[in-house]
Design a protein that fits this description.
- It is built from 13 helices and no strands.
- It has helices at residues 2-13, 21-37, 44-51, 54-57, 60-84, 87-101, 112-140, 142-152, 167-191, 198-219, 237-244, 259-264, 285-289.
- The longest helix is centred in the middle third of the chain and has 29 residues, at 112-140.
- Bound molecules: zinc ion (ZN) (2 copies).
Length: 302
């Protein structure tokens, strides 16, 4: 029983998890800083006091988030990881496969800092692109949308809504992360054998860590944090909130980089009017009854 609880509470004490307690606290600090900055237009008191209300954290919508958090962590910890193995094992296996089947192809002489930065950027970009692609197909195909609408059925967005995914979608995201990490890291281990250490591989986690720490928790919140002109390049929390809106046709599939949405014309920047008129989250009556039909209201930002 203690093991079971430890396993589920581990998400709060694991720095690589989005809801690591330090990330949550920093998100609250960032939120209050943003609110103070906008005080003239934005009701700081009511925003922060709404965060402290019991009803915000405990209602029918958040109950589903917490239940799925436990179910998905249980499936992942008890079934998926024992069956598939860790990402590092996958990367070493793929590196070895390349060495045995393609042969030795080692790059030497490159400065380690360049290798580490290059590898970090490639892995982070590949991870972000694969998240975008999977999210895009979750909206495109009826059978996948039936799974993904569990996430979109949240009417209250809290940092825990990130765990509100159908167990099959959760499995698909796990496999996506596993494959991208194994593939990119496996190639890097093959190319730079002995020059790329676990420490450098962890450098990539540090990029994700910083992003998580600063903004990712606010994506699923009612704090409408916009990035202004930067929204052309980086998806802001407000842009992900537009993705959850009932009335905007779910634009902005991206997680971090906005480029992918720009390329397919699904990028939409935030509208300051929602600082005054809050967005309504959840599914439309039609979406909860029927499989999705592609919305036509998504506009290109370009
Ligand atoms: Zn979505
Ligand atoms: Zn979301």
């Amino acid at each position: 029983m203690i093991e079971f609880i430890e396993q589920h509470l581990a998400v709060f004490i694991d720095p690589s998890e989005r809801v690591f307690f330090v990330h949550l606290l920093l998100a609250l600090v960032a939120a209050s800083a943003v609110c103070s900055y906008r005080e003239s237009r934005f009701d700081l008191k009511s925003q922060l006091s709404s965060l402290l209300k019991k009803d915000y954290w405990f209602n029918r919508s958040t109950f589903v988030d917490y239940t799925l958090l436990i179910v998905n962590a249980g499936i992942k910890g008890l079934l998926v990881i024992p069956a598939v193995g860790t990402r590092f094992a996958g990367a070493f296996a793929f590196g070895k496969f390349l060495q045995m089947n393609v042969g030795d192809f080692m790059i030497t002489g490159a400065p380690w800092l360049l290798i580490a930065i290059g590898f970090s950027l490639v892995l982070f970009t590949a991870d972000d692109l694969s998240r975008f692609l999977l999210h895009r197909v979750m909206h495109k195909y009826d059978s996948l949308w039936r799974l993904h609408r569990v996430h979109h059925s949240a009417t209250t967005l809290t940092p825990f809504t990130v765990f509100r995914t159908h167990p099959i979608e959760s499995l698909l995201y796990f496999l996506r992360g596993f494959l991208v990490f194994s593939f990119v890291t496996g190639i890097a281990l093959w190319l730079f054998r002995g020059q790329l250490t676990a420490l450098e591989i962890l450098g990539v986690e540090a990029i994700g860590f910083t992003f998580n720490m600063l903004f990712a928790n606010l994506r699923h919140s009612h704090i409408y944090l916009t990035f202004g002109r930067l929204e052309r390049w980086i998806i802001s929390p407000a842009q992900h909130q537009l993705h959850h809106s009932k009335t905007h046709g779910h634009p902005n599939y991206g997680a971090c980089f906005a480029l992918w949405d720009q390329l397919i014309g699904s990028l939409r920047k935030s509208d300051p009017k929602h600082l005054r008129t809050p967005l309504e989250f959840g599914l439309t009556a039609d979406e909860s009854r029927h499989p999705i039909k592609e919305s036509t209201s998504v506009q290109s930002y370009a």
